[in-house]
Amino acid sequence: MFDLETNPDNTAPPRCLGILLAAGRGRRYAGAAGGQDKLLAPLADGVPVVAAAAATLRAATTRVVAITRADNDRVAALLAQAGCEVVTIDPRADGMGDSLAAAARHVMQTAGADIHACLVALGDMPWIRPDTCQRVAQAARLHPIVAPVWRGQRGHPVAFQRSIWPALAALSGDVGARTVLARYGVTELAVQDAGVCADVDTPDDLAAVRSDSQ
Asked: Which InterPro entries match (predicted)?
């Protein structure tokens, strides 16, 4: 397990861009919430789930590329208002692998030469702390792939050095980056942030957090 605080000489973060994956359909949430899109569901402070996730990523990176479905105008508009660069994919795209590939192809074409890594976050994970994102990005100065770990459980966001981007661009389907992680290995960064493992899967997930905050 890697602990960044034991490496005090490596304090300057890389120039890192953010990738926010927000193209999922959230069928479980929609089925339990009368068809509502979980990315648009309000948190306790009224901020939509995906807007909170975008704000955290923007606070820790130089720019954020958000991947949405071409048939989800409301999420795309919200992310554009939040300052993200929105890239849409075919609604028939099959899962996280396709979203990651689209994002990687886009940043390979548009990222300046000074960008060292990308930080991939999920649109349904609104409780990650900005400082956690910054620590993961910082660790990517030393390691090709870095993921945070909270109480033994690996979470998000995950940082990928630029050399890994072509492998992400070749992904497809719903397996996400698992094949890339298996090929290159993952450096795990211990964090004290439960948000790295907390996503919104059903309305109960939001209700539980609201209850805890009261």
From this structure: MobA-like_NTP_Trfase (IPR025877), Nucleotide-diphossugar_trans (IPR029044)
Site of tokens 């211990």:
190
Give yes or no for a contact between 7 and 177, defined as CB atoms under 8 angstroms apart: no
Q: What are the backbone angles phi and psi of residue 82, rounded to the nearest 5°?
A: -80, 0
Output the six-digit token pair for 55: 């704000």
Q: Could you read off the pLDDT of 122-135 as tens digits, one per residue?
A: 999 999 999 999 99
Percent of the chain exceeding pLDDT 90 equals 79
Q: In sequence order, which residues have a C-beta less than 8 Å from that of residue 177 and are 6 or more positions away? A: 96, 97, 100, 120, 158, 160, 168, 171
The residue count for the chain? 214
| Nearest residue to 130 via CA among 204, 30, 56, 25 | 56
Predicted structure pTM score: 0.92
What is the token pair recorded at 125?
A: 């994970």
The b/e string for 93-132 (b: 16+ C-beta within 10 A; e otherwise) is bebbbbbbbbbbbbbeeebeeebbbbbbbbbbbbbbbeeb
Question: Nearest Cα to 64, choosing from 157, 187, 190?
Answer: 157
Neighbours of 56 (CB within 10 A): 25
